[in-house]
Structure formats: structure tokens, C-alpha cells
Amino acid sequence: MVEPMNEDFAAEERQEGGVGQSNLEGKIRISEDVIAQLATKALNSVEGVSPASPGLMANLRLGRKTVNGVRILISDGAAPEIVVDAYITVKYGLRIPDVCWDVQEAVKEQVERFTGYAIKGVNIYVQGISFADKSPEGEEAEEGEPAGGEEA
After folding, report:
1. Which of 22, 36, 146, 148 could form a disulfide with 67 if both were Cys (CB 3.0 to 4.6 A apart)?
2. Please, are residues 34 and 67 in contact by the beta-carbon 8 Å criterion?
């Protein structure tokens, strides 16, 4: 059976540069594109959601580009904070506020987990609703005349 680590022991190691500490100097900076890919993956993991185009007005903003329906803003500073703008379409029949909450939680958890950066906010913009096709194109040809104009 493993006993929990003594808090005093863990504090001493942190002060002495032990476990989890690095004596190297330098900065680590994660690209906005990498964070956008993480956010897009999280967005796609929510059922009934797909990335959407941000629209003309959002594209006219300078300095921030949209990647797969996601726009990222990283604040400068010792501890960078991230703001994510996600542009989505929601499947018809789903409750939009609940879906948006799920997207916010998924994006926040995914980005914080893989980057270590703090998420300041996840803004969701619902750009449309997607409707499922009732019948694929192939079924229409079976019911009527043969496809391709062939005659029997």
C-alpha cells in the first residue's frame, strides 16, 4: 500500500529545486495555431457540433485569424491567459445553451490540460443549425426509374 507523500517533504523538494523543478532559464511559448488545433479537436468531440465560418464581419478584424472555426487570443505576460472564440453550427433538435456549455467545458479542459495556460474565457458563436438529410440521394434512384437513364 502506498502512503501519501508528506506535505512538508514535498515543500522542501520544491524549495531545493527537486522534483518538478528545472534550473534552466528560458521561455516556452505555444503557437496560437497549436492551441487552435486543440480547441478544434475539443469542439469536434461534442456531439451535434461542427465548426462554422465566423462570417465576413469577424474576418475583417485585424491581427487574429480563424482556424477551423476557432480564433485564439493569447495575452502577453509571465502567465499567459487565453481567450477562445469558437464559431459553430448545432444539429437541429438539440438545446443550444446546453450544447454551448458542453463546448465551453470541453475546450477549457482540453486546452488547459495540454498547454498549462489559464483560460480566461471561451466565447461561443452559433452561426447556424444543421439539418440531417431525411433520405440519401441513392434512395431516390431506386424508387423511380433506374439511375443513369438506362432502360430495361
Report:
1. 36
2. no
Burial of 88 (0-12, 13-18, 19+ CB in 10 A): buried
Model confidence over 41-81: pLDDT tens digits?
999 999 999 888 766 555 555 546 677 889 999 888 777 88
pTM, entire model: 0.65
Phi, psi of 61 (to 5 degrees): -65, 140
Going by the DSSP 8-state scheme, the letter that residue 145 receives in this structure is S
**What are 95's three cell numbers?**
438545446
- The 8 Å CB, 24+ separation contacts for 95-102 are 96/126, 99/46, 99/48, 99/49, 100/124, 100/126, 102/46, 102/49
- Residue whose cell numbers read 497549436: 34
Residue recorded with cell 488547459? 112
